[in-house]
Amino acid sequence: MDQWKTISKKVILQGNRFLTVENHTVELPDGRIIPDWQWIITPDFVNVVAITENERFLCFRQTKYAVRGTSLAPVGGYMEPGEDPLQAAKRELLEETGYEAAAWTPLGSFSVDANRGAGVGHFFLARGARRIAEPKSDDLEEQELLLLSRKELEDAVAKSDFKVLPWVAGILLALQSLSTGNNRSFEKSTRPI
Amino acid sequence: MDQWKTISKKVILQGNRFLTVENHTVELPDGRIIPDWQWIITPDFVNVVAITENERFLCFRQTKYAVRGTSLAPVGGYMEPGEDPLQAAKRELLEETGYEAAAWTPLGSFSVDANRGAGVGHFFLARGARRIAEPKSDDLEEQELLLLSRKELEDAVAKSDFKVLPWVAGILLALQSLSTGNNRSFEKSTRPI
Questions:
Q1: Which residues of B touch A156 (CB under 8 A)?
Q2: Full-model pTM
Q3: Which of A85, A134, B106, B123 sits in a 20 to 30 Å window from B163, CA-based?
Q4: What's B109's domain CATH number?
């Protein structure tokens, strides 16, 4: 199967620093041309499912503009330009919760929108988390830090208390990794990310 | 915790039928005003994890513009204006695979982007699927239909062969539902969706 080819691209909306939209002219494998394939550029982001030394999952209850009421959420945020995903994950965990973690496992990286891009989400499991500082989040939203047991987390997933797609995906990736034991961490690995 | 309030909105990009961008003026609970909160409007969509009468998972291997190489994918597509999510799910399953399913379980609905919207994904588990027609997909991409065992599906998830966030989320929601038995279907329910 052949990839589509980008013939040309042009910025059609330069929004604030979180959003740019391009128009791409695209060629399909059979030679057809699509002149108006629109491509969304938003920052890549990380989500971190962090588990404390006492086997509690660090989660927030928070408001978000796209969500009715409150939602549960894992740690997460946008990557800075040029930042490495693991570095961003560690920074967000420390900033948002004041915790650092002993063992980090990558859970995969996924395009948000198969057609239009809209950034890539990088997901991590962080174990052995312990509090070393006060949180200093610069988020605009109100949020409350919760320490959930695995049972409480699984119940929250079943009730759709994680209302945003990357958040529920991150939690499920972490649970899948914990269940299958497929969570070899960087702690014991000499391979760079 | 209080929601943010939308004070005013204005279309700043009227793209093709798949994309509109608005600029919102937003008021935070503490009274601060954000004048440039950008809001992405793309169609809501469905993803369907369909299992045949022989316990095989219907998946595609396909190319997508935002994906390098090929990715595995569940059935899915955009909802038509005014279409009900379950109706869209049944339509997409039939169009893309020629299958219909006996039992449908909703797996939840999730905002794609907690900040900017970008549509809502509706996820379903469909069991007892059997082929009743030829597929007649209008998708532009090349794709190949696969019938995976549960083991093959779980291995594919572990290898990140589902490269797009809603797709891996849909598969994990379905596996979670199957594992917990939390999959009461519409088949036996008299409650409307």
A1: none
A2: 0.93
A3: B106
A4: 3.90.79.10
